[in-house]
């Protein structure tokens, strides 16, 4: 890598304290995110895949400091995000935005659609009072909604229309990077495709970089340049989308991909046994070994290092003889 | 808020409260007699001239009824204003700020909610003396914890909502979030609680008056009228039935308003 990436995340961890009893004694930690590193280049879309509870949402929020990371480094355009003070963080929010999963919960029901879209402009002081109606109209057009929607109430809108409003809000500040936290999983399948193609359009038109969080690998392969797979807060595999989906190198990725319905291939489905272990006391060594069909005694010995198995394709697994 | 004007119960409540308000405001124009002027016609039954008869001192019950609502409405509204002014800021701050302030505020609120309002009001009024101003203070004092608890719960729920996180994600600070998100989302339920507090305070002030701790005589007051008329219930029922009906109707009106707001 010669050029510095837009976003560089190194050894990111987020622990949640578990407190108990009268004096809130610290009894343990939930390891939501554990030692995760990745880069996102300008105009690049990185897909972040994993089951619910794998920490992918926490990664997305930590990167924007909507939750405070416990340790690790986040550099955005060369500046250390974890060291930002309040005014710097406010400026950072003009460059980096988020689209939430549930479009029904992420718009204040007491605001009109126009006010909701104008909120970032007002908070950041990006437009004068007289400019706001024009800016809102333009943002509505950008997400393919009619301009007269500004006067509507959020309750008048469908889920897909609401998600377009949420995207318009995120675009209002003119960001270079967006965290899309499962932006389509709360929507009907017929609407999902529309929102995905809107995101794809914005990516190519505005040159947006994206962290696209999802558990749907089929959607992710379509939209992402690279895919990262997380399990129990740890990065299992990261590489170019096509490679990761066509020739996964990590047993967990292989299992995830085999779960995607695909009528054209007669791939065997790999059914993982048991449940995801508790993130309070994760297994020693490789966290996936308790459910891995290829696990060896050695897997419990040490946390597997992330190794490059092909150019740009990394995995955290000690076995090279399986995939 | 619109539901107040569209739901039948909201419209009915509003009509009752407006009617009572107008009647007590224009009592001097409507009342046929001076409410404090006694006459020789004591304990007279209703007739064409004195629609509800007279009381034990020969005062016209109908005229006293029209004037008697003034103290009830003043006490009810005044107490609700005080309860809201004290309860809402404490509740919102406790819910939004959380932490130690919330722990202390919550203990305080629970302590006062655990004490029965009427008994507390009875003790304080007995100590401070029953004037109109003291009644407003006392009833405001016993009502604020309920308002605070409600405001706290709402602030807490809204603080954790995704749209507040979305607001933080675009760079909004606490002042903006309280002004643009928390307040617009709690104002309806606080308005509802305001109306219910008025109803509760009118009822409690009438109870205090009945127990002899209301507005001192000769000022006409519904609660006190019920008490006096109680002794002559068999002889002249309208003397206590009319003011009890007036209290019930007014309380019902505010209750309808309170429950018709979401």
What do you see in this structure?
The complex is a heterodimer of chains A (323) and B (262). Chain A is an alpha/beta fold and 323 residues long. Chain A has a single domain, classed as Rossmann fold (3-Layer(aba) Sandwich). Chain A is 29% helix and 24% strand. Chain A is built from nine helices and twelve strands. Chain A has helices at 56-63, 86-95, 113-124, 132-142, 159-172, 189-206, 217-223, 241-246, 251-258; strands at 7-20, 25-40, 45-49, 71-76, 79-80, 96-99, 177-181, 209-214, 226-231, 234-240, 307-310, 313-315. Chain A has an eight-stranded mixed beta sheet with strand order 6-7-8-3-9-10-12-11, with helices on both faces. A four-stranded antiparallel beta sheet of chain A has the order 2-1-4-5. In chain A, α3 (113-124) crosses α4 (132-142). The radius of gyration of chain A is 21 Å and the shape is globular. Chain B has 262 residues and is an all-alpha fold. Chain B has a single domain (76-260), classed as MetI-like (MetI-like fold, Orthogonal Bundle), CATH 1.10.3720. Helix content of chain B is 75%, strand content 0%. Chain B contains eleven helices and no strands. Chain B has helices at residues 3-6, 8-25, 27-30, 61-97, 99-114, 117-128, 132-159, 162-169, 174-210, 222-230, 238-260. In chain B, α4 (61-97) packs parallel to α7 (132-159) and α9 (174-210) packs parallel to α10 (222-230). Chain B is elongated. The mean pLDDT of chain B is 86. The A-B interface holds A 64, 66, 89-90, 93-94, 97-98, 100, 102, 105-111, 119-120, 123-124, 166, 169, 172-173 and B 161-163, 165-172, 176, 180-181, 184-185.
């Amino acid at each position: 890598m010669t050029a510095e990436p837009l976003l560089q995340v190194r050894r990111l961890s987020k622990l949640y304290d578990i407190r108990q009893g009268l004096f809130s004694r610290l009894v343990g930690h939930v390891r939501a995110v554990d030692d995760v590193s990745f880069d996102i280049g300008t105009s690049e879309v990185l897909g972040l895949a994993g089951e619910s509870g794998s920490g992918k949402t926490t990664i997305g929020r930590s990167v924007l400091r909507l939750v405070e990371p416990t340790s690790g480094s986040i550099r955005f355009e060369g500046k250390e995000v974890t060291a930002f003070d309040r005014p710097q963080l406010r400026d950072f929010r003009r460059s980096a935005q988020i689209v939430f999963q549930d479009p029904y919960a992420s718009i204040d029901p007491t605001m009109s659609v126009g006010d909701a879209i104008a909120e970032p402009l007002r908070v950041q002081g990006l437009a004068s009072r007289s400019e706001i109606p024009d800016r809102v109209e333009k943002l509505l057009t950008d997400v393919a909604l009619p301009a007269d929607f500004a006067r509507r109430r959020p309750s008048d809108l469908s889920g897909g229309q609401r998600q377009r409003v949420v995207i318009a809000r995120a675009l209002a500040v003119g960001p270079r990077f967006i965290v899309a936290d499962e932006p389509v999983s709360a929507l009907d399948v017929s609407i999902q495709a529309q929102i995905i193609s809107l995101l794809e359009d914005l990516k190519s038109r505005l040159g947006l970089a994206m962290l696209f969080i999802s558990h749907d690998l089929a959607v992710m392969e379509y939209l992402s340049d690279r895919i990262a797979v997380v399990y129990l807060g740890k990065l299992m595999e990261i590489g170019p989308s096509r490679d990761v989906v066509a020739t996964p190198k990590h047993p967990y990725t292989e299992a995830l991909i085999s779960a995607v319905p695909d009528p054209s291939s007669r791939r065997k489905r790999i059914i993982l046994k048991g449940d995801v272990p508790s993130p309070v006391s994760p297994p020693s060594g490789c966290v996936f070994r308790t459910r891995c069909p290829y696990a060896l005694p050695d897997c419990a010995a040490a946390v597997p290092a992330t190794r490059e198995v092909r150019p740009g394709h990394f995995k955290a697994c000690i076995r090279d003889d399986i995939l | 808020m619109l539901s107040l004007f569209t739901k039948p119960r909201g419209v009915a409540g509003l009509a009752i409260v407006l009617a009572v308000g107008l009647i007590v405001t224009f009592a001097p124009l409507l009342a046929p007699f001076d409410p404090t002027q006694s006459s020789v016609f004591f304990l007279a039954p209703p007739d064409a001239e004195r629609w509800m008869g007279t009381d034990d001192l020969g005062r016209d019950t109908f005229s006293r009824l029209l004037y008697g609502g003034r103290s009830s409405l003043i006490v009810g509204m005044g107490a609700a204003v005080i309860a809201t002014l004290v309860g809402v800021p404490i509740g919102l701050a406790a819910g939004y700020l959380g932490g130690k302030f919330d722990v202390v505020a919550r203990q305080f609120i629970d302590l006062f909610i655990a004490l029965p309002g009427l008994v507390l009001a009875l003790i304080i009024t007995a100590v401070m003396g029953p004037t109109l101003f003291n009644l407003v203070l006392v009833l405001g004092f016993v009502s604020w914890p309920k308002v605070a608890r409600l405001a706290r719960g709402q602030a807490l729920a809204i603080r954790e909502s995704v749209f507040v996180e979305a607001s933080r994600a675009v760079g909004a600070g606490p002042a903006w979030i309280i002004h643009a998100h928390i307040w617009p989302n709690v104002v309806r339920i606080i308005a509802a609680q305001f109306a219910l507090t008025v109803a509760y305070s009118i009822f409690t002030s009438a109870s205090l008056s009945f127990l002899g701790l209301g507005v001192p005589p000769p000022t006409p007051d519904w609660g006190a009228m019920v008490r006096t008329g109680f002794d002559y219930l068999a002889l002249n029922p309208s003397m206590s039935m009319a003011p009890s009906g007036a209290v019930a109707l007014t309380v019902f009106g505010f209750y309808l308003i309170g429950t018709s707001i979401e």
